[in-house]
User: Fold this.
Amino acid sequence: MQGLNLKNSELSSGWHCIVVEGEVDLATVPELESAIEAVFASNSAPLVIDLRESSFMDSTGLKALVMAHRRFDESGRSFAVAVSAGPVSRLIDLSGVESSVRIVGDTNDLEAHVN
Assistant:
């Protein structure tokens, strides 16, 4: 079992970014949910979850992303997930989540956020 490492940053486009390294699963998803909640509560920036360095995600991680998207959307804020080819991308493809959650291949693909 691999742990989870989260890195927060502000992108030049104005988006807040949480880079996720490691495995997002039942044991680690509370840490990701807490990080998302902290961003939601602390500023009004849109949020992108960068999973390009994540080696694994199970359905609990997928649920956390869907719930975060819903919460940001209801508050009028943008939310996106960045993924690259691999097991996390495969899970997202198989789940059909991209029909409701914005999926990008790179955080540079996000438009500038204007308040």
